[in-house]
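Appendix B, record 7
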Amino acid sequence: MAIPAAAAAAYRAAAQAATPTASSVAPANVGQSSFSDFLSGAVKDSINTIRSGEHAAQAQVTGGANIVDVVNSVNAAELTLDTVVAVRDKVVSAYQSILNMPI
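Structure tokens (predicted):
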């Protein structure tokens, strides 16, 4: 199974943030990003991947793009969209589970 570029970049960023090296250890709250920053970056990467797929498809329609590049861009956009939909489904499921918890 191929991993979309945005998901791979997000995973790499999370792994680097979770395991600081001796040279990258910073004082508290200096250079650290929050989960919302991480999520915002992942969403922006997803949007950019999908847009590049759209632009490649439009370029192919006008005859200005290589078919291999178009197929790769559209495939990456499709995988990114599938990943976003899967994450959305998990978030909705978690929200529904929280709503169903007894008080």
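Remarks on this record: Residues 6 and 44 are 9 Å apart (CA to CA). DSSP finds three helices and no strands in the chain.
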